């Protein structure tokens, strides 16, 4: 019987060795999950990490379904399990492969850029993926084509439009968690902490982005605080990242800008569920090989562009 958190961690550590498992965790995961992970990162970092795993038999993915699917697609010879496979992403579910096919039919010949927050089926219907860290670079790489379809996050799409000064054809998806943050909250918190800098994620609304000092992916937030003279930040993305930021930059103060920036799906992972997944090996994430091969082309295209200077 594993009673205390330390008992559970000890059992996880024993099993991860026995099973030759690597534990990956997104920066939105609960603090105690991040603390036992072999690697903590954003979607792009986790994709790169998953693709590079060579000396493990099992990947325990602490995040949401689309991320585990991406790990499975990039690492087809390894078993990928999720501690709670019911952890989905409402934004990813705002578009399906059928809906994307109908969207493409209305815009023949237009390339499709697909945010990684999407199902494997949707990626398989897309030309190239992007993350919030590289979306601008990926869209720019397509050149001066008349139309580019961007799915499913309209707000990341609008951020790219603003950065590049060009229009995209946007799917009207959004993240319900980031949607809750409005400019009035930023104004109120700035009045309370006038010396703080505000950083928000490009999944927030355009009026929210306009009120912030920085619009950054989670990985870019971590990079910014590694070497900064700024003492205090108001953090406008899912609250899990505050743990990552505090570990990265203990000299800074990080304050959650809103109590509503908490993704319920990201919080489904717990230490007992990780232990259970390692014990049973039953919560396997698998992707149909035909879909996986097509989706991999879109992910590989992203990784290729992203690595270019
Ligand atoms: S924070 Fe938003 S985009 Fe990320 S998993 Fe949760 S619902 Fe999806």
TrEMBL record:
Coiled coil: none annotated. It is an enzyme of class 2 (transferase). It comes from the Bacteria. One of its GO terms (molecular function) is metal ion binding. Pfam families: NadA. The keyword Amino-acid biosynthesis does not apply. Its EC number is 2.5.1.72. Gene3D superfamilies: NadA-like. Its cofactor is [4Fe-4S] cluster. Keywords: 4Fe-4S, Cytoplasm, Iron, Iron-sulfur, Metal-binding, Pyridine nucleotide biosynthesis, Transferase. One of its GO terms (biological process) is 'de novo' NAD+ biosynthetic process from L-aspartate. Pathway: Cofactor biosynthesis; NAD(+) biosynthesis; quinolinate from iminoaspartate: step 1/1. InterPro entries: NadA, NadA_sf. This is Quinolinate synthase. It comes from Oligosphaera ethanolica.
